[in-house]
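User: Second chain of the day. Same drill as before.
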Amino acid sequence: MRKKPKLVTFDRPFTRAEYLAAGGGRSALRGARYREIVKTIYVDVDHDDSDSRVRAALMVHPEKAFASHWSAGRVLKLPVPDNPFEHVTVRDRNERRYRPWLKPHVTIRKRGVIIVRGIPVTDPITTFLQMAGHLSLVDLVVLGDAIVRKYRISPQRLLKAARASTDYYAAAARRAAAFVRKGVDSPMESRLRMLIVLAGLPEPVVNVVLVHEDGSWRRRFDLCYPRIKLVVEYNGRQHREPAQRTADESRTKELKPEGYLILPFEAEDIYVTPEATLNKIRRHLVLRGWGDVPMLNDRWRQDFAA
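Assistant: Same format as last time:
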């Protein structure tokens, strides 16, 4: 009777050499129990997750290497665009390890490094400063808004760090940090606000809360011009669900007698028809008596398709 190949359990990515040294069978390594993350580095499927590849990237580097850039954004669970490489930073150029799926960086600058789920990774502020050289203004503001929300770092602290930075792209970091706001709930809310601001329109107030006479919470608006009771909101897919639609209609009915107008927008209004969105917001600013409302400028076209 043929002997069943021995299985070896690892709770982290491992190399073929480690597996064989632990007594694992070669044929078992090719079975369904294991997945080859990248060449010669495997993971037990029971321990496979979104961190597996970045752990593999750190495995091939010296101990003091840390995840950075896009990889840091993913580890920190922040909204960064997709990138085909894992990004690792080392302190000495001789410590870089090159692989087709790996992008090593080297720096002698001071970097804030924290441990997240056992992974050494740049802290949120350092990640923001690093990504300033790689993201558009809007994407960097999206990242900054998310850092403020998730890690409870004030916009002022982020701006202070950007102003103190001597990195090559510090100017880009400073510019984006100046637009970061507290209380932003989603990346699309950040994008809608930046569309408005970059077009030269007055900036709406973020996270406006209405309260009852006793001071208890009543309603909250994503973006609002309180003086003229104009609300601008991004509605995600959940707003298409019957229960949410009913709740939205109920809120509108409740607030309309008090003079509030709610302008809801969806992804298409930002990505497909941004100019029409801007014209609609501007028209209502004028109609509701904002005052001297600027004409739209063209700065927004650099970050949003016309």
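Residues 137-151 form the longest helix (15 residues).

User: Great, on to the next one.
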